[in-house]
Amino acid sequence: MIASVLLLAVLAAAQRPVTKRPVARPVDPRTVAAPGVVPPVVVQTPAAQGAHLSTFQGTWLGPGTDSTARRMIRVDGLHIRVSESCLAGGDVECNYEGDAVAYRPLGAAPNDSTISALGVEYGDARWRQSLILRPSEQGRLDAFVYTRYAEAERRNAYEHQSLTRVAFQTIPATIPQFPWPPPRATVTLRLPDSLVAIPGQDSLGTVFDRLRMALKRVDVGWWSVYAIGPNGFAVVTRMEAIDADGRPKPGAARWSGLSAQETPRFSGIGDYLKALFSARPGFYRVIVFAVTDRPSGQTADGHGLRPREAEILVAGGSDQLPAAMRAIPLETDGRCIALIYEFERPSESDSARFVPRAEIGALQHLMLAGLWTEEQLRK
Predict the structure, then answer these.
(1) Extents of the domains making up the chain
(2) What is the CA radius of gyration of the chain?
(3) Does this model's pTM top 0.85?
(4) SS3 sequence, 301-369?
(5) What is the DSSP letter of 176?
(6) Could you say which DSSP state residue 238 is in?
(7) Could you give the 3-state DSSP secondary structure of residue 116?
(8) Is 293 helix (H, G, I), strand (E, B) or coil?
(9) pLDDT tens digits for 171-202?
(10) Which of 103, 128, 160, 368 would be 246's cystine partner, CB 3.0–4.6 Å?
């Protein structure tokens, strides 16, 4: 049977709602409701047999194709959270959420507790998106997604997507592991939750995208990504030449560590590292952003990051977070910690050595690197 559904108003007439529709709870400014701005539309969805609410629970992943956007959908009770590319534009992920309406099958008895679909809607003055989830065969969910825009030049989009349940405990880390507890850093700082990582709301992919945007602002060039257990990751930045007060060296000297008269020509990162640790005397830093719910502590022997270990960390890892890890939610105890490792090469005859204590704190290091402002870091 095909039921014509006026998302979400006509659905209520076609199938009996189990509860009254709660008020949506937006995560992001884009999710502030603006009733009546974008008109509703009729979409046809097949009527479904009933299933228990537990059938919908968990985290579901819909692959990106030519006709569908990649999205992760988490269902907790009647609360639904959707992670996908920002609908207002951009190449980062946004989170949208709301409390769903549960609908009984057509002709269901009054005491029937089964559910045929969950429906939720969110949006703002520029766009609105309606999502209906319906049980499918083989333990999957069907997602019917309709996105409509107020601007005439943007085309409305309808998607039918098959969702697969994600079992996070079975996802193997496909990138090397970062040592945890970490080597003792020169200075550390837990970043404000609103800046990079929102525990219990963001996916690891969302957090990684925010860090990547910050690193691109200062033209880091490359970085190395590592796993921290099965549900965390670390980003190790390129070695940076700095002054004693933490200010970066000007121009190309910031990232090469070479004298202004020399032109850096590296065939690979191995050549880069050799040049770096034989470069002119001075101070250097490596910043590690660790996203994890694990206690930090320190290594058993309490030593700092040795120069050779820094070489390995900068040279290893991946430049991206694997797709399987992007979908993993950041747990409620999760956070992003900045670990700053400072090194000094006192003279041409000396090797670089770890600096256990710095003249400035982690907040100043991050500000001087140009990653964030003081106001952002003190929120």
Answers:
(1) 2-166, 187-377
(2) 25
(3) no
(4) CCCECCHHHHHHHHHCCECCCCHHHHCCECCCCCEEEEEEEEEEECCCCCCCEEECCCCCCHHHHHHHC
(5) P
(6) P
(7) coil
(8) coil
(9) 445 788 888 888 888 999 999 988 999 888 88
(10) 368
